[in-house]
TrEMBL record:
It is an enzyme of class 2 (transferase). SMART domains: PlsC. Keywords: Acyltransferase, Membrane, Transferase, Transmembrane, Transmembrane helix. InterPro entries: Plipid/glycerol_acylTrfase (IPR002123). This is 1-acyl-sn-glycerol-3-phosphate acyltransferase. Pfam families: Acyltransferase. It comes from Methylobacterium persicinum. It comes from the Bacteria.
Amino acid sequence: MARLRFFLFASYWMGWTALFLAPLIVFALIGKPTRPIRAATRLWAHGILLGLRRIVGLNYVEEGREHIPSEPCLIVANHQSAWETLAFLVLIPDVAIIAKRELLAVPVVGWFLRRSPMIVIDRTNGTQALRTMIDGCQQAVAAGRSVLIFPEGTRGEMADPVRFKRGVELLYGRLGLKVVPVAVNSGLFWPGGGPARAGTVVVSYLAAVDRALPTAEFLRSTEGAIDRELDRWRAAGATVGA
């Protein structure tokens, strides 16, 4: 039954996405206006989350949202599933998400993502990728937008310890923003390479990290905060996945 529901959801995904082809053509003809494109991208993500809830039975709750400051901040989240890449377009509407270039290969959606909330980097391009990331983040902050990064670089398993790759410490040093760690347990319900199943994803916003910490302490503090929060669900992982 779970696989049938996910098959129906995949069909819904394709149909819902196809509806955005006409707006894509209109936006392309009138000069790629940023604000309408961002609004359309958020609408698309809302529709995907609605499909997950109604067809698959996958919902979500947020905890600790009061930890997000009113001014721009650096949001640092663990990455377990495709779910959070989509959901943060809705959860933090004007956030600039640092994303890998492969996302742009998704038909129709890739066009919108390139021109809306994403800061797209080519991870194979080393130093240039870091420069693109830093420049894009500085422009986003100057425009009053927060920045979101998945510093593990790729999806991890629930049991894996949280370990950041190079890049997040550069943003911490260059942007001078408050850092909000976020723990997500989406891998319990939509693991990489598998179908999504019914359940409730928890998005837990943790207390902001002091922006004046030395870099090494910032890394230990942020990794540790997310890791400890994930411990809430690790014991339940085997039961949920069974």
